[in-house]
Amino acid sequence: MTFIPNWEEFEKSAEMLYLRDPMNTRYTIKYSHTKGVFVVKITDNKKCLQYKTEVQQDVRKIDKFISNLIRHMASNDN
Amino acid sequence: MTMKRYDGRTKPEPRDGKPVVKNPEYKCLVRAQSRSKKISTVVEQRDVEIFSTAYSNLLKTSVNGLKRLKKQKKKAMATQ
């Protein structure tokens, strides 16, 4: 799969993907210290979105998104 | 690290598509892997805050091998 070049776009489409099918959507992050890359991926087994960054500041945005997502996953709204 | 929503079911879904768990209280299933070691946990609704602050701290302290962009920008601004 290709990588989405900008974070805002990834965030928006990831949110839509998740809200369409919360039960079957999983979110993965990978960090390689030696390579200096941080990869996030979200998929619902039909569509897959990926975003890759080498910039420290992006980690904060990703962190914010993750905590929102966790909060939604562990809540009863759909 | 992978995370997904989890409704607490411990059996596979039956073929007729009936939900196994009625009125599920959604949780968050978190799995982490490094080489061959795997760990996993389920974050309950009441533990979300604790988990996410702990996780944010972990990200802030451990992920430090990336480039910093803003500093370069500031330097470029100063030279102009």
Automatic annotation (TrEMBL), chain A:
InterPro entries hit by this protein: Signal_recog_particle_SRP9/14, SRP9, SRP9-like, SRP9_dom
UniProt-listed Pfam families: SRP9-21
GO MF term set: 7S RNA binding
Highest taxon above the source species: Eukaryota
Predominant subcellular localization, coarse grouping: cytoplasm
Compartment(s): Cytoplasm
GO biological process: negative regulation of translational elongation; SRP-dependent cotranslational protein targeting to membrane
Record's keyword terms, sorted: Cytoplasm, Ribonucleoprotein, RNA-binding, Signal recognition particle
The SRP9 domain, residue ranges: 5-73
Task performed by this protein: Component of the signal recognition particle (SRP) complex, a ribonucleoprotein complex that mediates the cotranslational targeting of secretory and membrane proteins to the endoplasmic reticulum (ER). SRP9 together with SRP14 and the Alu portion of the SRP RNA, constitutes the elongation arrest domain of SRP. The complex of SRP9 and SRP14 is required for SRP RNA binding.
Protein name, UniProt field: Signal recognition particle 9 kDa protein
Organism from which the protein derives: Helicoverpa armigera (Cotton bollworm)
UniProtKB/TrEMBL annotation, chain B:
Subcellular localization, as worded in the UniProt entry: Cytoplasm
Basic and acidic residues compositional bias, start-end: 1-19
Start and end residues of each stretch annotated as Disordered: 1-22
Coiled coil: none
One Gene Ontology term of the molecular function aspect: 7S RNA binding
Main location: cytoplasm
GO cellular component: signal recognition particle, endoplasmic reticulum targeting
Pfam families: SRP14
Biological processes annotated in GO: SRP-dependent cotranslational protein targeting to membrane
Keywords in alphabetical order: Cytoplasm, Ribonucleoprotein, RNA-binding, Signal recognition particle
Domain of life: Eukaryota
Assembly and oligomerization: Heterodimer with SRP9; binds RNA as heterodimer. Component of a signal recognition particle (SRP) complex that consists of a 7SL RNA molecule of 300 nucleotides and six protein subunits: SRP72, SRP68, SRP54, SRP19, SRP14 and SRP9.
Family named by the database record: Belongs to the SRP14 family.
Known role: Component of the signal recognition particle (SRP) complex, a ribonucleoprotein complex that mediates the cotranslational targeting of secretory and membrane proteins to the endoplasmic reticulum (ER). SRP9 together with SRP14 and the Alu portion of the SRP RNA, constitutes the elongation arrest domain of SRP. The complex of SRP9 and SRP14 is required for SRP RNA binding.
This protein's name: Signal recognition particle 14 kDa protein
